[in-house]
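G., before I forget:
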Amino acid sequence: MAEMLRSDVMLAFAVMTAVTVAARLGGFWLMGYVTVTPRVRRMLDALPGSIIVAAALPVAINGGPVVVFAILAAIVATVVFRNDFIAVIVGMTVAALARACGFG
Amino acid sequence: MTSAKSAAATNAYWSRTAIWPGIVAIGPMLPGTLAFGMAFGALCAQKGFSLAEVEVMMLVVYGGLSQFVAVQAWPDQLTASAVAALALLTLTVNIRFALMSASLQSWFGSLPPWQSYPSMLLVTDGGWLAATRYRDRGGADAWYFVGGGIVLYLVWAVASIPGYLLAEQLSDPRKYGVDLAMPAFYAAMLVPAWKGPRRAIPWLVSGSVALVVYWLVAGWWFIIAGAISGAISAGLMDDDATSASDPAHG
């Protein structure tokens, strides 16, 4: 029976946690010292969309045609149904079906 | 400035009426979170972690993508340099949380620190996106973000257990399209964020920079590089009539 909680693993988790907590709190803390000028306001307004595109686009393109197609299907589903839930299900289902049929 | 006025008019407050709407808003994330957590539990079982260890990681690290990446790259021997490498890997994946919490300052910054900082521990992709959309509509109730965030946290923590126990059947999450859960949710979030081609220029900049960095630089720096480039490009663009327009429900 392996040890339930290995101490070196716990140490590694602690370091990962410290880094993650620092990221979550650090941005909020730093922003408290920034004066929100109209320019900063525009930058903050553009941030959500920019993060989304930066995080998803390379992964989508690297994922190949199945992933790109599934994401397009999710976008179409959002436009048609205006429902995030349906969009996620459509994206996952399209990818799972395409792979089951031997694509990707 | 109108922006300062509207910010002052929408200081954060706590009202339980927003708890349920906040939970409903992260609802679309739940199947993906559940599936992602299960896939992660299965991966950990294959990598020789104990279930107790997995649960500790789910509850304290609480960064799905970073956990996945770290466990896939988990070293055989946890030397000091191996732990440092894990820390750097975690940082590159999770530094986007700093941008997300920074954008929440204009909302949660009006709360006392003992309320705002613990709230920031709940920042995740899904919770933050849902909260951002609520904020865009003029919402200011802190419970909207915190209530949804707590539910996401609990679902995430529980999801790994069946995954760990069913590791054999779930060894290939791609088969069930689990890897599409997050990208599909992202795509769904972009549709309502669309406010005309001019406002999408930063997205174009962000995507282009992210792609170039993705191909040229190893690791996960592409997320932060693209996101910051997009934001900077928005800051450099001249203000125009449309970019000053708010939902103006206040």
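Chain A touches chain B through 80 residues (CB under 8 Å). The longest helix of chain A spans residues 7-31.

More on Monday.
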